[in-house]
Amino acid sequence: MRILVVEDEHRIASSIKKGLEQERYAIDVAYNGTDGFDLASTEEYDLLILDLMLPGMDGITICQELRKKQIHTPILILTAKGQIQDRVEGLDSGADDYLTKPFSFEELLARIRALLRRPKNSINTILTVADLKLDPKQYVVERGNLPIKLSNKEFSLTEYLMRNANKILTKEQIISHVWDYEANVLPNTVEVNIRNLRRKIDHPFKEFKSLIHTVRGFGYKIGKK
Ligand code: CA
């Protein structure tokens, strides 16, 4: 597995590189945003580790530009700032996960493993449930040919539900497939995300049947009631 580390603090960059090489990852390092973006958009990486505050081009912009270019390499953001706002901004810009400095090397490794385990572009069949379509490769969701804008998490949740259409999925199943890090999952996280999905996938489309169903005491499913 080949990883690009974009980090301007040489001490941090070299300790990540050293540590990950011991875990048999192949590591490239870029020390500024411009070089990082160039490498990330021309070379094939399995994962990007991206600092937010960088000379040349900041981490958020790199994320956005890569996603615009349809490059969907998983991105783990490193940042010194741990505020909720940064987290939301990072994840909205197309990053997959987030780690606040200082972090333990064990935690970095755990996050990397979780991101690399996720199914990637290899699974690129367009999923269809009734009039709802999801393209995992292009990150597009449509209902009746109208595009639906989803956050990364809502997208993953929809994808997971659609891959298991008409099957009841428990909250625990959903959490373990959609959220890699249970520590960040609040008790009502699944409910909140399901509610948001209904608001985006079912409510605006009165002419179609509702697709997202709650099965009391068991969990959720997408498809036929
Ligand atoms: Ca920095």
The main pleated sheet reads as: 5 strands, parallel
* Dominant shape: elongated
Query: How many runs of DSSP E, i.e. beta strands?
Result: 11
Distance between the termini: 42 Å
Q: What is the H/E order?
A: EHEHEHEHEHEEEEHHHEE
Give the neighbour order of strands across the main sheet. 2-1-3-4-5
* CATH topology-level fold name of the largest domain: Rossmann fold
* Subunit organisation of the chains: single chain
Q: Assign the structural class, choosing from mainly alpha, mainly beta, alpha/beta, alpha+beta, or little secondary structure.
A: alpha/beta
Average of the residue pLDDT scores: 87
CATH level-4 homologous superfamily of the largest domain: Response regulator
CATH class of the largest domain equals Alpha Beta
Share in helix = 25-40%
The set of bound ligands, ions and cofactors reads:
calcium ion
Number of helices: 8
Using only C-alpha atoms, the radius of gyration works out to 19 Å
Give the DSSP E fraction (strand runs of 2 or more residues).
Answer: 15-25%
Number of domains: 2
CATH architecture of the largest domain: 3-Layer(aba) Sandwich
* Low-confidence spans: none
